[in-house]
């Protein structure tokens, strides 16, 4: 995967960064940490400039997230009711919980999308409920672009500072992401075991 990223950046420059960031947000397993980190390394070598790197990378992130937003908008949260009623235990949700979450998202969606851009995994998946809640496209794009710009800038500057030692960043990011995933898994298991039907 790393070799593919390096080859695409070497071949396409900023275009390669843009395409990789679009793909990364449609297929989350491709790590933005590596893409923007290598971009920062290219800045350190003088092959790229920081501002265009961040702007173009963030434009790719935003476009990739529009894909999931559009799917969520097409589905709409109302269509989930039969599924939630049938599989509520494994979702650890009742339908009134979904309605409360929907109302919260309608009121505070701008900040929710912005903040979630800094969280592993949820950076992309938050676009789905944003679409389901029919969040206004301009607000979604603004929150996505600004939140992603901050995150991408952090990654790009980390690549610039660490240079050829960028692999050290992965040594820290990897365990943190795994740790958060384990905690979320344990939290989900606890909710499944303690979930009670309200019928």
Kindly describe this structure:
By secondary structure, this protein is mainly alpha-helical. It has one domain. It has ten helices and no strands. Helix 2 runs parallel beside helix 4, helix 3 runs antiparallel to helix 4 and helix 6 crosses helix 9. The longest helix has 28 residues. It is elongated and about 60 Å long. The model has no long low-confidence stretch (mean pLDDT 80). One of its GO terms (cellular component) is plasma membrane. It comes from Sphingomonas turrisvirgatae. This is Alkaline phosphatase. Keywords: Cell membrane, Membrane, Transmembrane, Transmembrane helix.
Tally of DSSP β-strands: 0
Helix % is: over 70%
User: What is the alpha-carbon Rg in Å?
Assistant: 19 Å
Summarize the helix and strand pattern as letters.
HHHHHHHHHH
Number of helices: 10
> What best-fitting shape do the alpha-carbon axes yield?
elongated
Determine the N-to-C terminus distance.
48 Å
Classify the secondary structure makeup into a structural class. mainly alpha
Proportion in β-strands: under 5%
**Could you list the spans in which at least 5 consecutive residues all have pLDDT below 50?**
none
**What profile does the largest beta sheet have?**
none
| Oligomeric organization of the protein chains | single chain
Tally of domains: 1
Mean pLDDT: 80
